[in-house]
């Protein structure tokens, strides 16, 4: 009976992981800072403000005065 509980827990975790891949959550941490996720490094007129959850660079446009 105990193994049944373990198998159900593993199945539940696998289903949650599959749902996360089918319906990925957007990376709001960069958007909150008014940034965008770019592969590689930030190029002008953008500057680096952090890293996105997918490993891309979080870049924000520089304000010129």
From TrEMBL:
<comment type="similarity">
    <text>Belongs to the beta-defensin family.</text>
</comment>
<dbReference type="GO" id="GO:0031731">
    <property type="term" value="F:CCR6 chemokine receptor binding"/>
</dbReference>
<dbReference type="Pfam" id="PF00711">
    <property type="entry name" value="Defensin_beta"/>
</dbReference>
<protein>
    <recommendedName>
        <fullName>Beta-defensin-like domain-containing protein</fullName>
    </recommendedName>
</protein>
<dbReference type="GO" id="GO:0005615">
    <property type="term" value="C:extracellular space"/>
</dbReference>
<dbReference type="GO" id="GO:0042742">
    <property type="term" value="P:defense response to bacterium"/>
</dbReference>
<dbReference type="GO" id="GO:0060326">
    <property type="term" value="P:cell chemotaxis"/>
</dbReference>
<feature type="domain" description="Beta-defensin-like">
    <location>
        <begin position="29"/>
        <end position="60"/>
    </location>
</feature>
<keyword id="KW-0964">Secreted</keyword>
<keyword id="KW-0732">Signal</keyword>
<dbReference type="GO" id="GO:0042056">
    <property type="term" value="F:chemoattractant activity"/>
</dbReference>
<dbReference type="InterPro" id="IPR001855">
    <property type="entry name" value="Defensin_beta-like"/>
</dbReference>
<keyword id="KW-0044">Antibiotic</keyword>
<keyword id="KW-0929">Antimicrobial</keyword>
<keyword id="KW-1015">Disulfide bond</keyword>
<feature type="signal peptide">
    <location>
        <begin position="1"/>
        <end position="20"/>
    </location>
</feature>
<keyword id="KW-0211">Defensin</keyword>
